[in-house]
Amino acid sequence: MQRYFQIQGYFADDQSIFDAIVSSTHDYDETTDDIIFFYGLTEPNILQAIQEEIAVNGEFFITAYQETELV
Q1: Among residues of the chain, what percentage have pLDDT more than 90?
Q2: How open is the CA angle 22-46-8, to the nearest 5 degrees?
Q3: DSSP 8-state class, residue 15
Q4: What is the pLDDT of residue 70?
Q5: What is the pLDDT of residues 8-40, one digit of tens each?
Q6: Sheet holding 4-11, edge to edge
Q7: Is 68 exposed, middle or buried (0-12, 13-18, 19+ CB in 10 A)?
Q8: Gap between the Cα atoms of 70 and 2, Å rounded
């Protein structure tokens, strides 16, 4: 089952903050590409990134998240 998460955090390069961008647990989907910021990010990946304060793919840090539905 595909799941979606709203994530909050900041970009690694310039530390600019983002809020409520959407990630998906599955790979690229053309029908939702305008909505999804990052593909393939599972809840365990998110929790690990937060707990270990590591940048996802070296691109961004996650500070909070919540599961969401696409409307």
Answers
A1: 75
A2: 45
A3: -
A4: 85
A5: 999 999 999 999 889 999 877 777 778 899 999
A6: 36-39, 17-24, 4-11, 60-68
A7: middle
A8: 11
* Domain of residue 26, residue span: 4-68
The two structure tokens encoding residue 26? 């599955």
Instruction: Provide the b/e sequence for 31-51 (b: ≥16 CB within 10 Å).
Output: eeeeebebeebeeeebeebbe
**Nearest 5°: phi and psi at 25?**
-75, -20
Joined together, the tokens standing for residue 7 give 């994530």
Backbone angles phi, psi at 34, to 5 degrees: -70, -20
pTM of the model: 0.87
Q: How many domains does the chain have?
A: 1
What would the two tokens of residue 41 be? 């990010």
| CB of 5 closer than 8 Å to CB of 41 | yes
Distance separating alpha carbons of residues 23 and 7, to the nearest angstrom: 7
Distance CA 52, CA 71 (A): 32
